[in-house]
Write a structure and sequence with these properties.
single chain, mainly alpha, two-stranded antiparallel ribbon, 12 helices
Amino acid sequence: MTTKIDKAGPVDAPPPAAENIKAIPVRHYGRWVSAVIAIAVLYLLISAFARGDVNWDAIPDYFFDGEVLRGVRNTVWITILAMVLGVVLGIILAVMRLSKNPVTASIAWGYIWFFRGTPVYVQLLVWFNLGLVFDYINIMPIYKDEWSDFMTPFLAALLGLGLNEAAYMAEICRAGLQSVDEGQSEAAQALGMSHAKTLRRVVLPQAMRVIVPPTGNEFINMLKTTSLVIAVQYWDLLQATSEVGQNSGATAEMLFLAAAWYLILTSVLSVGQYYLERYYARGSSRSLPATPLQRVRVNLLSFSNRSGGVGA
């Protein structure tokens, strides 16, 4: 601020008017170059597959083949059952791991150590070949049968996948349970709740915000891991497409078909995981981000309003 002197004394002069600033955005040439390179690489990749010796017409011909659909159904079924087994057993192991009883805590730690430390493919083969160790299964007086008749490909696949998943779910559930403040449990116990009731009504609902996101990832990973059950001769998607490919002579094409079905199934599971995470995130934030459908609806409404304004 400048000072102007006149006859009456010094007078403060008004500040000069601020000039309009014209902001020029920074040009990011690297982004355009990287985008052009990415598009070029994608074009070359698509062109290579298009010119390859692949009978692409065989894929839609067998996409809804009866054997392929049976493989898809069995894949989804074994995925759901293995995840249910893994989640239930994982919660039990997590509670055992956090127990003050050293015996139960050690058993849970040993289980997690063994099943996380060995490949799931090896575990599937072990379950399927346990008949070399046990000739019979004898649960007197409930059940008795030969091991080869008892350990079917379905049961070997379920145990191999589910018991392995339980080790990972135990660590996920343990992290979720430990994320809840201990004051919540203390307050519930002060109100007279038992330990089991406190866990069921206070701790677990709050821990679900931490447990659900990685569990969704495990579900999707389990769907892809089911391709390993071909080792125990269980009829899944990969087994079905392999058989169809051998019979039709389109071996490589059926592998692409299997990949397409896996992409469809994982995409459906990803959408379900998104909305499940939104459901359990309701108490953590005041305003949830808009869903894709809500964003599309808002854009359509704004576009229609602009169009109506221009027409008027």
